[in-house]
Design brief:
With about 400 residues, this protein is mainly α. It contains 16 helices and six strands.
């Protein structure tokens, strides 16, 4: 039996017609979680209701003129920012991708400093959060690489890149069981996504919506993200995968060509509004999520410009200090914005120099304070660039979660 019901705590007001979720009933035979109280056991009896996501492939989202103007302004800001970085955008692309990954992870309460994240990308396992964020960097890179073919299969590839290092069983696998958000059982959950039998068709419908070219890109990305989070197609990692899809869509639609706009850094400033907007979407109102992504995109560009300015200042400082140094030392300095944690082997591979030359160049940068030792990872010596690390931490501090409820 299906019925329409407003998600808990959400307003019933709708600015424009958009189908909200409906609900259907399913039997529940599972035993309550171990340690559940008597009340929780009683509440977890009998059938439960799961959401049914609306089909959106052929729908035309509408927002008011103010939100439409916000979308247009934010989109132009993104296009200009992408162009501002010029032809040599590789260092900034890597940094912005890393910043987006860290911000998206922080929304899920996964927090680590830039130094820990950089070391985790080299294999350091001392911080579980940093290791998960490093996996998110890989997932986001996979999303960008696959942006020209946004398919159900490639979304699974993105998810695999995200979770393969932490949970190989569910990595890249669409769920075959019921999940719910918060609560000890679906009966008491904050939100119960669609039954697993509906995931495949819902994802096909979502991909069809994402492949359309007649919707403003940022509006399309915001709605696609909200629909993905409603479907909740994986057992874990849906939030981070869903935000990676936003970056992939912006690349696929030509909003960005060189860099990843760290939209999650804008969402992070008020996670309460973000989650409320997802709730509003499920009640049939697309405007809040579109507005939130437009405002977050504009905020991300502003923060990204400050990061770029800090990196440019660091690069200028490096070249001033190394003006009389061998070319090999300057070559290593040039790779630091892209790789703020390095090993001699990385230098050899990426810059193309003999082992002895690589070590001499690193020693020169260490003597000038451009690099500092960071111990060993799996027996290999590592150095970090403190000025680049500081710029990334400053970016995160500016984005920082200031409002949560």
């Amino acid at each position: 039996m299906r019925q329409t019901r407003e998600p808990r705590g959400m307003s019933t007001g709708r600015l424009h017609a958009w189908p909200g979720i409906t609900y259907e009933e399913h039997p529940w035979d599972a035993e309550p979680e171990h340690g559940a109280s008597r009340r929780q056991r009683l509440l977890a009896r009998g059938p439960y209701q799961s959401a049914v996501a609306p089909e959106i492939a052929d729908l035309d989202p509408q927002v008011d003129s103010r939100t439409q103007a916000l979308v247009e302004a934010a989109t132009m800001d993104m296009v200009r920012f992408d162009a501002e970085l010029g032809k040599d955008s590789a260092p900034f692309a890597a940094l912005l991708l890393r910043s987006e990954s860290a911000s998206s992870s922080q929304i899920e309460d996964l927090t680590a400093g830039a130094r820990k994240i950089a070391l985790a990308q080299l294999g350091d396992t001392s911080s579980s959060n940093a290791a998960l964020i490093a996996s998110n960097v890989r997932a986001l890179q996979a999303a960008i690489d696959l942006s020209e073919d946004l398919s159900v299969e490639n979304i699974a590839v993105m998810h695999h890149a995200l979770l393969n290092a932490s949970d190989q069983v569910i990595a890249g696998e669409y769920r075959d069981a019921q999940v719910w958000i918060r609560g000890n059982a679906p009966h008491t959950a904050e939100f119960v996504p669609p039954h697993p039998s509906r995931v495949s068709a819902a994802m096909d419908d979502l991909v069809a919506f994402m492949r359309r070219d007649d919707i403003p890109a940022l509006t399309q990305a915001a709605i696609a993200h909200a629909q993905f989070e409603t479907i909740h197609p994986f057992t874990d990692g849906n939030g981070r995968t869903g935000r990676a899809i936003v970056s992939a869509l912006l690349r696929a639609k030509g909003v960005t060509e060189k860099v990843t706009i760290p939209v999650s850094s804008g969402l992070l400033t008020n996670t309460g509004l973000y989650f409320d907007a997802l709730g509003s979407y499920r009640s049939g109102n697309v405007q809040p999520i579109v507005e939130r992504f437009a405002e977050s995109g504009a905020s991300a560009v502003d923060n990204g410009r400050l990061l770029a300015k800090d990196i440019e200042a660091a690069e200028e400082g490096y070249m001033a200090v190394l003006s009389a140094a061998p070319r090999s030392a300057r070559s290593v300095a040039e790779m630091l914005p892209r790789e703020p944690a390095v090993t001699a082997e990385m230098v050899q591979e990426q810059v193309g120099m003999a082992p002895a030359t690589a070590y001499r160049a690193i020693e020169r940068l260490e003597a000038d304070g451009i690099l500092v030792p960071a111990g060993k990872i799996r027996g290999v010596s590592v150095w970090v660039a403190p000025q680049i690390i500081a710029a990334l931490d400053d970016f995160a501090a500016r984005a920082g979660r200031r409002v949560r409820s």
